[in-house]
Amino acid sequence: MSELNEQTAQMEDQETSTGTGEDKAEPEKAEPEKAETNQAESSADKASEETGDDQDAPEEEKADGQPEGSEAPEEKADSVKTAEQQKKEDDEKYMRLMAEFQNYKKRVAKEKQDIQSFANEKIITELLEVLDNFERSLEHSSDADENYVKGMEMIFQQLKTAMEKAGLKEIQALGEDFDPAVHNAVMQEESDELESGKVSKVLQKGYKLNDKVIRAAMVAVAK
């Protein structure tokens, strides 16, 4: 009797284990089917999105009223106006630069000419005292030997000619109207021959070098 009960219990255990194995196998079969379903749904969604994008593009073009990437007439007009304004500004800048360059060339040329004209100013100014001394000597040489006086006059004339070639010019003063730009009045005196304001006497000669006063004439003025 006990053996019969044991066999019955073993048979029940085998049936129970068999049922459990079948239950486990069914979920394993269900998982591949679920993966295939998800993949199909994903493909359908992707196709739907692409179709929706293609449909939206013509609507956007219709809404804008012009192809994508083209400029509106107002924008083109503004671009042309901006380009013309920029060209005008560039032309004005070029003209200003050209005018400045021409002024620079003139200024440099004048400075160069001034350097050449007045390069000898210092030495000419120093030689003026030599001319003064020559003239004083000749004025008081009446008692000297005639040949000696002639020799001194020749040397004086040669020196004066050389200085005149360098641009030296004597300022006219005697009998002229007093001009403070070229005359230096050191005294006034009565004069029956000259009107008031005229130069009545030259105490020291004045000179210009290339129209530049390097020494004003020292004079007396009639009153």
UniProtKB/TrEMBL annotation:
Keyword Chaperone on entry: yes
Superkingdom in the source lineage: Bacteria
Entry keyword set: Chaperone, Cytoplasm, Stress response
GO molecular function: adenyl-nucleotide exchange factor activity; protein homodimerization activity; protein-folding chaperone binding; unfolded protein binding
Assigned GO CC terms: cytoplasm
GO biological process, one term: protein folding
Major site of localization recorded for this protein: cytoplasm
InterPro entries: GrpE, GrpE_CC, GrpE_head
PROSITE patterns linked: GRPE
One Pfam match: GrpE
Compositional bias ranges of the Acidic residues kind: 50-62
Location of region: Disordered: 1-93
Compositionally biased spans, kind Basic and acidic residues: 21-36, 73-93
Composition bias, Polar residues: 1-20
Intracellular or extracellular location(s): Cytoplasm
This protein's record includes keyword Lipoprotein: no
Protein task: Participates actively in the response to hyperosmotic and heat shock by preventing the aggregation of stress-denatured proteins, in association with DnaK and GrpE. It is the nucleotide exchange factor for DnaK and may function as a thermosensor. Unfolded proteins bind initially to DnaJ; upon interaction with the DnaJ-bound protein, DnaK hydrolyzes its bound ATP, resulting in the formation of a stable complex. GrpE releases ADP from DnaK; ATP binding to DnaK triggers the release of the substrate protein, thus completing the reaction cycle.
Family: Belongs to the GrpE family.
Quaternary structure (record): Homodimer.
Protein name per Swiss-Prot or TrEMBL: Protein GrpE
Species this protein is from: Baileyella intestinalis
